[in-house]
Amino acid sequence: MRFRFEMDGEAYSKNKETFKRILAKHGLRWKGSLERPFWASGSERVTAVFDRDREKDILRSATLVWESVKKSTLLEELKGWAWEVGANVSEDRSPSAEEVTDEVERALRNWDLIWKPNVDLLRAQGRPSTWIEADVKRWKQRRLERRRELIGQATD
Prior knowledge:
The protein is α+β, with helices and mostly antiparallel strands. It folds into two domains: 2-93, TATA-Binding Protein (2-Layer Sandwich); 98-155. The protein is built from five helices and six strands; from the N terminus they run βαββββαβααα. A six-stranded antiparallel β-sheet has the order 2-3-4-5-1-6, with helices on one face. α1 (9-25) runs antiparallel to α2. The longest helix is centred in the C-terminal third of the chain and has 27 residues, at 129-155.
């Protein structure tokens, strides 16, 4: 079972400390990364997707997805918090984060077979190290863009 909380970036930013206190109160701990932020306990999980404007250094919107086998007091408290901050709350029937992640990782492994630079081969061919580093950096950026694209396709 999943519920989606969608809100304006400013609303999330102003109220994120309360959100984090609610999660901590119910035993959820930070387990994610900056690329894939999420908090989890033994039975519940909250995943976040943030839309940022890097040039202006602002958060445009935030989407939080609560997941568990059954409804809980955490869900009810999150619904109350969301109502206070003006978020839209809806039951989410899209694939779970695990299903999406597995699907995305499989697709990225296939993408890597074609696009990942073979550093050893490039060195053996005499390509300059600075060029190889630039190739790897460009590949990492394109891979991140591809990951975002795949996640967007899987959750639509």
